[in-house]
Amino acid sequence: MDMKKYVPEWVLSLTPYQPGKPIEELEREYGVHDSIKIASNENPLGPSPKAVAAITAALPDLHRYPDGDAFYLKRRLCEKLGIDRSRLIIGNGSNELIEMIVRTFLRVGESVVVGKHAFAIYHLCVQAAGGKTIAVPHNGFKFDLDAMAKAIEPNTRIVFLDNPNNPTGTIYTRSEWEAFLRAVSPDVLIVVDEAYFEFVDDPQYPNSMQYQKGDRLLLTLRTFSKICGLAGVRVGYGVSSPEVIDALNRIRQPFNVNSLGQIGTLAALDDDEHIKRTQENNHQGMAYLRRELDRLGLEYAPSWANFLLVKVGAGTYQKLLPEGVIIRPMEGYGFPGYARVSIGLPAENQRFVAAMEKMLKRD
Questions:
Q1: pTM above the 0.90 mark?
Q2: Which stretches within the chain are classed as H helix?
Q3: In this predicted model, what pLDDT tens digit does every residue of 125-183 receive, in sequence order?
Q4: CA angle (103, 4, 106) in 5-degree steps
Q5: All domains in the chain, ordered by first residue
C-alpha cells in the first residue's frame, strides 16, 4: 500500500523519537545482570515515597474515570505557585503540552525557532503539524539567544527554549534572557521548558514565570518526571496568561491526565524531604563525576541539570553495554562522539567511571 496517497509528506518524512535503551533489553541481548541505566535523566532515588503511598491507596478506584480538570492537583499547584487556576494547564507530561502548543498556535507552513541542539521533540511536533523549523546554531554548548532573535521570520509563531537545555545541561543567564525579550516581538509565543529548573543553583538563572506580566505571549513548562521521580505516570504543567491557557484547553483531550498521575503528583508536591534528597544526591554526584572525568581527561559541557554531556569517543555507547552500563549516545543531537550521562546513585556513578577507565585502558 502506497501511504503517500493518504499521509502528508511531512509526516512520512519524520524520524520517530528513539527513547533510551531499557535495562531489560540490554540484559536479554548481552546476558548480563545488575545493569545500570544512566541515560534518560531519571531520578536515581526512585519516585517520591509519598506519591507511591498515595497511588497504592488509590488502586481500588481504577474503574473510575480521572478528574477531567485535575481539580485538586491544580488547587495545590496554584497555592504553591501563587497563581490563579486560569493560568494553569496540566498535561500528560510536558510532551503532550508541547504538542498541544504547536497544534494550537501553528498553521501549516508557518515557522518555529529552536536551538540546533535543543530537545528533539520540538522539531518532531512542528514537522508533524506541517510547520517549518528554524534551527539556530549554538554558541559552543549554549543557546545563542541573540542569533535566535534575529532568526525570527514574519511568519514565525513560536520560539522554544529549554533552560537548562537538554542535552547540553547549559543555561542562559538573566541578562541574556532580558535582552532576548527586548529583541523579540510580544506577538511571538516564547515557550520556556524548565524541566530541570529544580537542579539549578545559580543566582543568574532566570525563572521565566517571574516575567509573565501579561504584556507578551510567554508560557512556562515544568514536569514532575525529574525531581519527583514520576516519569512513569507522565504529568507536566504549563503556566501562562488566561488567554493562552484557554486556547490550549480547547484542544486538550478529555481525561488527558490519568488518576494515578494526578494523585501521585499531588502527594509529591509536598514531599520536601524527597526533593531535598534528590537535589543533594545530584549535587554530590555531579561534583564526583566532574572530578573523575577531569582525571580521565574526558571533556564535558558545563551542566546545571541532572546529567552531563561527555565526549566519550565514537562507539563508546556500544562498548559499555557488555559492562552493563547504559548511557545515551548523542549523534542524533548533532554531537558525534558525545554521550549524555545522567547523575545516578553513588555506586552507579562509580560503576560508570570504572567502566570508562577499563575501556580507555583497553583501547
A1: yes
A2: 9-12, 23-30, 49-58, 71-81, 93-105, 120-128, 145-151, 174-183, 242-249, 259-268, 272-296, 316-320, 346-362
A3: 999 999 999 999 999 999 999 999 999 999 999 999 999 999 999 999 999 999 999 99
A4: 15
A5: 3-46+272-362 (3.90.1150.10), 49-268 (3.40.640.10)
